[in-house]
Write a structure and sequence with these properties.
single chain
Length: about 325
């Protein structure tokens, strides 16, 4: 038997229930892993609230985790081998990481080697996939380019700032609260802007022609303004929905997107960053070159408090649950 955090119906964090369940059994294309830690994500908050229509209940949420292989019927993975997993339907199409053991498809696993503690490793899979994928694969960020991060105090925004800085870019990042300036500067940001919903004038003071690239993490309500901050020939990647806005009520592309400015997206569920990049990322953390911002680590039994902190928008960095 094992323990699992089960959501029987959408609603508040108090709807989570910790239940005893039989240990799941993997099929040939699956593995059984012992989950050691997992990070919390805004998409899980939206699913818990009932904003993911395709998700049926009861469901064990959780779109990422790290842990060790217990059983692989195919023999591809060895017992005790460390793996990370993210997306691929976790916590949506099938039960995810809010449990002590999980059966997961091999296709979403990333094997790795690291001496980092589980509470740090648990913060990384989806955060790295999203930040690195957005910067490198979608934006194709280059040395000496200027990058605007909209929603900079989110866990992805903070890591993206460090990664962009390590790539040689100049980083401009936003927050709605001036008190977050120190946190952003600590994470490699060169210029902090207070986000009042309209950044074009502020960007114009520092970069009259606009910036090269933009990473949109807030959502559809700020995307139009972010696009206006980009120089001709530049590019914006729409990655996050911190505002929980999925779509536009009215969208006129010719009016919305400035001439010659590009708009792309990054979804870690559709494109997976290759494992060697994740391993190099871990090595940078071990050397102290990258320092992931972790807000708080909770125990498994504190899942309700962990979700309440995420919903309060008071966390500065990643929220992690360690089993």
């Amino acid at each position: 038997m094992m323990q699992a955090v089960v959501l029987n119906e959408s609603g508040g964090a108090e709807n989570f229930t910790i239940l005893e369940r039989p240990l799941p059994v993997p099929s040939l294309d699956q593995v059984l892993i012992r989950i050691k830690a997992f990070g919390l994500n805004r998409s899980e908050l939206m699913t818990r609230k009932g904003l993911s229509p395709s998700v049926t209940f009861p469901r064990v949420l959780g779109i990422e985790c790290v842990g060790e292989i217990v059983e692989d019927p195919s023999g591809e993975f060895s017992p005790g081998q460390k793996v990370a997993a993210s997306m691929g339907g976790m916590g949506r199409d099938f039960d995810g990481s809010y449990q002590e053991f999980a059966v997961l498809p091999k296709s979403i696993l990333t094997p790795f080697k690291s001496c980092l503690p589980w509470e740090i490793l648990g913060a990384l899979p989806e955060m790295f996939q999203t930040a690195f994928g957005s910067l490198k694969l979608a934006l194709k960020l280059k040395e000496s380019e200027t990058l605007l991060i909209r929603g900079g105090t989110s866990s992805v925004g903070l890591l993206a700032a460090q990664l962009a800085k390590s790539m040689g870019a100049t980083v401009i990042s936003t927050s709605r609260n001036k008190l977050n300036e120190k946190l952003l500067l600590k994470n490699g940001v060169d210029l902090v802007l207070e986000d009042d919903g309209i950044l074009t004038k502020q960007i114009g003071k520092h970069y009259p022609g606009g910036v090269d690239k933009g990473l949109e993490l807030v959502g559809t309500n700020t995307l139009a303004d972010t696009l206006q901050c980009i120089k001709p020939g530049g590019l914006v990647c729409f990655t996050g929905m911190l505002s929980e806005n999925w779509s536009f009520k009215d969208f006129a592309p010719m009016d919305y997107i400035p001439s010659t400015v590009g708009l792309t997206t990054f979804d870690s569920g559709s494109i997976k960053v290759p494992a060697p990049y994740f391993q190099k990322f871990l090595q940078k953390i071990e050397k102290g070159e990258i320092r992931p911002e972790i807000s708080k680590v909770f125990s498994f039994s504190e899942i309700v408090s962990a979700h309440q902190l995420m919903e309060s928008n008071q966390a500065k960095g990643k929220i992690v649950v360690k089993i």
